[in-house]
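[stage:ingest] chain + small molecule (tetrahydrodeoxyuridine)
[stage:ingest] validated
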Amino acid sequence: MTDQQLLEMAKGAMQFAYAPYSGFLVGAALLCDDGMVYCGCNIENASFGVTNCAERTALFKALSEGKRHFQAIAVIGGQNGVCSDFTTPCGMCRQALSEFCKADFRIVLGDDSGSIKTMTLGNLLPGAFQL
Ligand code: THU
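[stage:predict] done
[stage:export] tokens:
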């Protein structure tokens, strides 16, 4: 599974985004250590705080099927599905990922031009909270 393939899967998931309030569509694809990929989209709610991001949708799908070890997540998104910039995981998603992923977990960002930027969870969430 290449980073480009993972991003294509994230883009595919973006089509299922339910975002009638923001119009900002996001897709994510989470690569497990065993090679399986779980995709997710953002799911908004009239009570805005209930909204679930694409990254946590993918993570919770994988966790709920017993997966615990992950290599990378690809994320792509944009207003009305136009992905002109990189979309980085929000703080809540970074913290959710940090429960299961180490600092070297890769976060693959893409846009519609085909540019790819790879970061790590350690880059994006230094000093993650732990009990
Ligand atoms: N969103 C995500 O799905 N992932 C992110 O990393 C950032 C934000 C969603 C939440 C909401 O539905 C919309 O994008 C606008 O914030």
